[in-house]
Amino acid sequence: MLAAIAALCGSLLVAVPAVGTAAPDSGISQQTMNFDIGAGSLSDALLRFSEISGQRVLFGAELVRGLGSDGLNGRYTPSAALQRLLSGSGLNARQTDSGSITLEKAAEKPLPSGAATMPAVTVLGQATYDSTDPYNPAYSLPNASTATKTDTPIMHTPMSVKVVPQQVLKDQQVVTLDQALRNVSGVVSGDGNDREFYVRGFSSTSSSGSNGGGGSTYYRDGFPFINGWHHTVDLANIDRVEVLKGPGSILFGRSEPGGIINFVTKQPLDTPYYSVRQQFGSYGHFRTDIDATGPLTANKDLAYRVNFAYQANDAIAQWGGGERIFAAPMLRWRISDKTTSTFKLEYSDIKTNADNPVPYNLLGKVPRSRNFNDPWAYSEDQYVMFSANTEHVFNENWTLRHRFNASFAEVTSRNVAAAGSADASGNFGRWGFEQNFDGGDYYNNYFNSLELTGKFETGFAKHTLLIGSDYLKTDARATMGPVFAWMPGFESSNAYQPIHRYQMPGMTVSNFPPQRTAFNTFEYDNPWFGFYAQDQVELPYHVHLLGGLRYDNANTDTYADYGAIPQFFPSVQTPFVEKQSNDRVSPRGGVLWQPIPELSLFGSYTENFGAPNGLNAQGRVLAPQTAAQWEAGVKTELFDGRLITTLTYFDLKKYNLSFQDFPPGSPSQLIGKAESRGLELDISGEILPGWKIIAAYAYMPFAQTVEDPIHTQYVGKRLHNAPENSGNLWTTYEFQQAILQGLKLGAGVQAVGQRFLGYDETQKTPGYATLNLMASQAWKVGQTRVTAQINADNLLDKTYLQGLNTYGVGTYGAPRTFMGSVRIEY
């Protein structure tokens, strides 16, 4: 296995020169066996030695940093083989009482003041990697921070949390959020354009986004990244994706109750690492990714990381396609041995041409290449984000962290879309929509948090205490409304003879759409403050308790002017200003028992405080949604911790559910309560050497509107876009034999059951399953690793709707596509 322990995160490493040479202890096995170890780094050679011999090898990562090996080929005893590999390295090999082999330097020099030693790494045919190591091949990570905001083992966390590691993103050649999140149980695509997802039956998009002030809420490194309206994000600088199932507002503030989607970004490393990946694929896909990191000073107090991506692509639909540019430089500064600051800047510009929502009941009746939009239609999403994170370590038990983040986004959009299902003749209504009419729109977020984490003991109880406060201010302006007047002959179209505006008399692509002076204007100033405390308690007999409380004070200051569609608010004098303030205390508690290292049993209860629910017909801000969830499950960690599984039962209730009329910009109504219940299974890790798997399955038999005094016909009906069954299976095998070393094959299936559009069960789309394959070959050329890879997605070319909207339209899933890439790493 081509591991690279030397690339472990440098913040814990110590530079110690190697001196002297020694042979391994004679106690090591003397059975002769065949060794085929190529030249390269000593760390790779030692890991390959461990795979072949089965001998445990323990060594600090810094111990072998920068050391090379000429390799080994032939039949040797393990003792002789290890002696040849260590020749000239200045290292001793010593056998411990347990039979493991420990590497040591022949002579030690004093460590510099304030330095910390790297814990030993145990190897038995498989390396143990730091989670930030760019060469980490693992499909499972033992720890996650999203559920607790502390680095907690998943087996000690009494909630369901799923991690999608970097190697999975590489093997699947993930480019979009949807591709990454399909690996998580209970998550399905929302609008199909990588901007919305449904988790445990509920949208990740706050309802206030329909009136301009909300949008999907994601998290980056634990702080909110509210993208607003139509924005999506690039994954070029994402190391892994962590998803906390169920409510998470106790730690993250106002959020949707289905789950917390947290993107953990790549960080600067002390060890130089450079990577370039070039992708070529179907429908003109072209993408370049660059990743570079390393120290800027000899003492490694300053380190950098730069991620860059450029992508251009066409689409199966006429006029479709897009282009995106992403850049993210970072700087880490170790101010002292106890204080570290990290600064990050992100820039993203994503352009999409002519999105093509189609009436759901035209699935399979018209070609996927037929576009019901117009060639002038487009959207452009831009943002700039700056963050500064500082951590001060008082001692080994107490740490203070401060985070600041500011993001500035702008979304411009002009589109025509189907407004409902088609009749028997293929006729359907449509609407035109424009955002950022006057070029003055903005969506700005300012986030500030301060957290103190401490570990202490009270009698037989061991505590990990988290106390924190955060402040988030959203300052936004949106101008939106119809692109055109609802003129006769254009408010409808036909599936078999579509009408395009530029084809109408006097209209061309160049002179249409005209600028309009009447539009809706929304302005939001939404500050909210939170204070939270959490205690994780470890008791005797492997019992773990978790308890927490959060106080929220949320304010909404709204300005609205319905200049383009005043008929939707006939009883409101516009413009108008509406203010609202809400307070709430939300609790969370959990218990976990780990009777044996391989098994954990857990249960939890969590409440949620959500975002505002938009404006009603009288121009009033609706009461915020709240939620509560019970959860219980079983976790296992098998095969020496390499395979993690979580089986969870959940019961999630959402209160003050809101419903918005069509089209966007219309008022919303509170319609009562909805509930989802079901089982989820998540599996990730390595079954046998080289055989990895990540799988997800959700069975949600109950997902219904429970109360709705306004739309009584919805009560007892299934929720929108909530399949009863959904899942994903992905597995790869990397050949271990020397002659095939570096060759990897993979296959996967994604399946989603039938779903309803809207809340009355009158419109539904059939389920689907897609088959995906991959193959890659990796080579070592000196210190450089080269990987050639090809992926085939939707190999059987299944036609299906991936995204669904409540008013009867959907977005086609990708057809059969091939993606080739070459990655060079050094």
TrEMBL record:
InterPro entries cross-referenced by the UniProt entry: Beta-barrel_TonB, Beta-barrel_TonB_sf, Plug_dom, Plug_dom_sf, Secretin/TonB_short_N, TonB-dep_rcpt-like, TonB_sidphr_rcpt
GO biological process: siderophore transport
Subcellular location: Cell outer membrane
Domain Secretin/TonB short N-terminal: 55-106
Gene3D superfamilies xrefs: 3.55.50.30, TonB-dependent receptor, beta-barrel domain, TonB-dependent receptor, plug domain
The protein's name: TonB-dependent receptor
Bilayer topology: Multi-pass membrane protein
Keywords from the UniProt entry: Cell outer membrane, Ion transport, Iron, Iron transport, Membrane, Receptor, Signal, TonB box, Transmembrane, Transmembrane beta strand, Transport
Annotated SUPFAM superfamilies: Porins
GO molecular function: siderophore uptake transmembrane transporter activity; signaling receptor activity
Pfam families assigned: Plug (PF07715), STN (PF07660), TonB_dep_Rec_b-barrel (PF00593)
Range of residues in the leader sequence: 1-22
Similarity comment text for this entry: Belongs to the TonB-dependent receptor family.
A GO term from the CC aspect: cell outer membrane
Main location: membrane
